[in-house]
Specification:
This protein is of the alpha+beta class and 451 residues long. Helix content is 38%, strand content 13%. The longest helix is centred in the middle third of the chain and has 16 residues.
């Protein structure tokens, strides 16, 4: 894997195609972004995520998480990792009934609508037969869970003795899966999804509890109509990827994109409130904005997410070194994991963060120069703190700058400009190597040290 000027052309082309087919208008006047992208970060994330699979599926505390397994497969698809998608698909098919129904644990005759919709979406992404997936016709099974009764026509519903927990995120997957299957229920499912969009452009997360209430859509300002970043981002992604040409869909995703862009922090991150900024929301929102051709916003989101992907190489080695590629949920999680690493207790959060955040990394900008390290000084005395300049880091890319006895963890600037840090020179009358190491390449210089 080369360090500089790497591209994710195939990924971006696929995303652009989805928008072009839609006839989607470009978001408002984004500033020019770097012409080249760097596939190093998304490749590292995908490689780590695949290593976390157990026989093709995500397992935590002895429990198989089929939903996270599908998230992993969808993320690997965005990374262009066909073999990874196949691995998840092959493992999931024979287990599909354990995900979309609860017969195995006492919920006889059940079908979970959101799970069925998500499974159907992944099956198509994986190139599998959605009408015979592990022996199940996912399209028919999903159609049966789309209400045909007013006032909830089009709404997905769980069939379960435990209650109905279907929500707007599942509705988005349902609309996409049914559109792609050319189902007669696609129009109803899509219309109900669009009704969950509030006037400001966001989508809420929960449906109206009372299924008999005349108003089943989002009513801004009401308690059950709070804005949801993740629901909005996933609704945009699923509607765009469905390939729908419907004018109401085109208008809805444009409006949602405008709202999403307005939620982005100055540093590129998304999120807030009790949860704070995080890579899950940033990755999903950035992915949606990238598909909407708002490259500036997607690039800023990708840079922020990349900063949360620790690269603990060379002298900067820590307990996280073996997990190179993983993406932390929040910056503090990187600091916390340097001593103990990713433990059984924290693995689930790292896996979910990586799976949901990594798609935006297809818009991660590349370095503008070859990696190098230099100093104006050619010599110094032991104990001197000498300034070294590192060029050629991609925005948000992490690296280790080190000399014997001292090191600094550094991060590429958003501008892709040089990063300068001081290192303390070691003892010894000899030439010392100063090295900068990224995930996939290194550069060095020397300085003469006198005691």
């Amino acid at each position: 894997m080369s360090h500089s000027l790497r591209t994710a052309g195939a990924l971006l082309a696929a995303s652009t195609l989805a928008v072009t087919v839609m006839g989607q208008p470009t978001m408002a006047a984004p500033a020019p972004a770097p012409a080249k992208t760097d596939d190093g970060a998304i490749t590292l994330a995908g490689t780590w995520l695949k290593r976390e699979l157990t026989s093709g599926l995500m397992v935590s505390d002895g429990f198989t998480d089929y939903g996270l397994s599908i998230d992993t497969g969808l993320a690997l698809d965005q990374a262009g990792d066909k073999s990874g998608v196949t691995t998840v698909n092959t493992a999931l098919q024979p287990k599909i009934n354990e995900y979309i129904a609860g017969d195995a644990f006492g919920d006889a005759g059940s079908t979970y609508a959101g799970a069925t919709a998500k499974a159907a979406t992944f099956a198509r992404v994986a190139g599998a037969n959605t009408t015979s997936y592990g022996g199940v016709n996912l399209v028919t099974r999903l159609e049966e869970r789309v209400s045909a009764t007013a006032p909830i026509t089009g709404r997905i519903e769980d069939k379960s003795s435990f209650g109905d927990f279907a929500n707007v995120i599942g509705q988005g997957y349902a609309a996409r899966a049914l559109i792609e299957a050319k189902s007669k229920r696609a129009a109803d499912a899509t219309a109900f999804l669009l009704a969950q969009q509030c006037a400001s452009g966001f989508f809420r997360e929960s449906f109206t509890k009372d299924k008999a209430a005349p108003a089943q859509g989002c009513i801004e300002g009401q308690a059950d109509s709070a804005a949801s970043l993740d629901s909005t981002a996933l609704a945009v992604v699923n509607l765009l990827e469905s390939g729908s040409r419907d004018k109401t869909v085109v208008a809805a995703v444009a409006k949602a994109g405008t709202w999403l862009a307005a939620q982005q922090k100055a540093n590129g991150a998304f999120g807030g409130g009790d949860l704070g900024v995080n890579t899950n929301s940033t990755g999903l929102a950035g992915w949606a904005l990238g598909l909407l051709k708002n490259r500036e916003a997607a690039t800023k989101a990708a840079v922020w997410v990349r900063k949360q992907q620790p690269i603990e190489k060379n002298k900067c080695r820590s307990a996280l070194t073996k997990d190179t590629g993983a993406i932390a949920y929040q910056p503090k999680d990187v600091r916390d994991a340097r001593n103990d690493g990713i433990t059984d207790k924290t693995a689930y959060q790292w896996r979910r963060a990586t799976a949901q955040a990594m798609a935006v990394l297809q818009w991660a900008p590349a370095a503008v120069d070859a990696l190098s390290v230099s100093s104006r000084r050619t010599s110094g005395e032991a104990g001197d703190k000498v300034r070294f300049k590192v060029s050629g880091l991609a925005p948000g890319e992490r690296a280790c700058l080190a000399v014997k006895g001292d090191f600094k963890r550094i991060v590429g600037k958003a501008s892709a400009g040089p990063v300068a840090r001081k290192l303390e020179l070691p003892t010894g009358n000899r030439s010392r190597i100063v090295k900068v190491k990224t995930a996939d390449t290194a550069a060095k210089t020397t300085i003469q040290v006198r005691n």
